[in-house]
Amino acid sequence: MHIFNSAQLLKIIYQFKGVVDVICEACDRLNWKCPSKIQQEAIPVALQGKDIIGLAETGSGKTGAFAIPILQSLLEIPQRLFALVLTPTRELAFQIAEQFEALGSSIGVKVACIVGGIDMVTQVHLLGNKPHIII
């Protein structure tokens, strides 16, 4: 009988959903012990290239549910200006950008968070760096 440590178990669980090793490792670094309900439902569908609409409570892992498939697709087809994520509030935009940066740090993902109330020149500079993900 083989006993798995938590990192190995997490990797197995996420891989079962079709997630590649480097993103599984990022989930482990974020202390995500296993996919949340919304992630279990959304990730396999999104990895097939299908659109998803998900409703879940605050703190349920919704950002991971769409960020993980986006990052995995970016690994498969690397290019700048890969995804645009729209959100209704500045605070949520910053939270989503933070999650993308944390999940994508080991693969060199560049994220630009563009919101109102921030110096336009600064934001133009962020876009000029041709990020992979724009929030």
TrEMBL record:
Keywords per UniProt: ATP-binding, Helicase, Hydrolase, Nucleotide-binding
PROSITE patterns assigned: HELICASE_ATP_BIND_1
Segments forming domain Helicase ATP-binding: 43-135
GO MF terms held by the record: ATP binding; hydrolase activity; nucleic acid binding; RNA helicase activity
Pfam families: DEAD
GO cellular component assignments: cytosol
Superkingdom of origin organism: Eukaryota
Protein name: ATP-dependent RNA helicase
Organism: Romanomermis culicivorax (Nematode worm)
